[in-house]
Design a protein that fits this description.
The protein is an all-alpha fold. It folds into 3 domains: 84 residues; 118 residues, no CATH class; 166 residues, Intergrase catalytic core (hpI Integrase, Chain A), CATH 1.10.443. 59% of the residues lie in helices and 3% in strands. It has a 3-stranded antiparallel beta sheet with strand order 1-2-3, with no helix packed on it. Helix 13 packs antiparallel against helix 14. It starts with a helix and ends in a 6-residue tail after the last helix.
Amino acid sequence: RCALSDDLNEALGHPTESHRSDLLQLRDHLLRADRPTSVLTWIRSAKVRSVLGALAEAQSPPDHAILDALPQGGAVAHIRALLVEVGVLAPRDEAFTRFEAWIRNKVESFEGEHKRALERYAVWYHLHRIRRIQSNDGDVHSAAHNAKQQITAAANFLNWLQEQEISLEACTQSLVDIWLTTGNSSRYTVRGFLQFAKESKLAPPLHAPTRHARAQTRRITDGERLEWIRYYLTEESLSPAARSAAMLLLVFGQPLTRIATMRLDAVDDDAVEGMRIRFAEDPVHVPEPFDGILRQHLASRDRTRTGSVDTNPYLFPGARAGRHITRERLKAELNSLGVDVLATKNTTLDELVAAMPAPMVADALGYSYTALGQHEQHRGVRYRSYVSGRYDG
């Protein structure tokens, strides 16, 4: 820690002498890290030193704009997260910020008479919609990903019209059909833009059919699911974190996005009632021996290189301060062992609605009735049996 203190003082421009309380907070936080050797290695990276040097040279406490002006990368993102964790920077939704910047670059790089139409679609519709999702604490990451696909399809379609020297107002359904059938299936994503253009009176009524992803029907067998459950319950070479995340998928059919963002307060361990976990309004019981694995994980959550997880509010902390693990990392860990995530989730939900009415499963696990109704139909059980009183509880 003595060596780390010396390196931090040098990298941050000796904050004690410069009376920079913001940099002192960052230095003291890093000095308290569980693994000071890892921090020492990290701050000796040229990219990290460059970012820390920029903070030290600033004439005032850092804000997001200072970091936004630097070349973006892992070093900037991690230091930003550390500054948020120690209270120097105000929290902000980085997924939304990245999406906002992506829209600005997409519109600015677009040329031609259709630029205004693309801007209206990207900003007035998608950006405003995702801002509402953000204000309601929704999943901005997934919404932004889908929006990017739709905006890109719109831009490609408008570019094609410009190449044909045809205005959006003069476009016909036959031209839309030609464009759809002379490219890959991603072109059908233009459907949302055509609807927007019609409602905004930018174009006549035009239509693109919906293409349903066949991947949604993937499943594993009931026996394969039970084998995976047995494996994660007994394979002690895996970390409790990996086993807990996998069991949330295998037992409760939770999507990886929700597993990654679960907070610690979703789990309640009571000496009398046992362990319960909340996916929706009411908590559900965590069965044995899964509860024991989850307790092991709670007692030894993964440590980050540059800090402690004691103040991290998430059930599965990420590599960056104050953040949760990413869906992509969870998926990669499961895929590396051969788990087909989508197929496993489908089969888990099939089994749950076969054991109890779909509305009860939906209420307990945070799904819509429509989504669980589809699994009911797949298993050959019907929602009408529940409402007519066939299920007695």
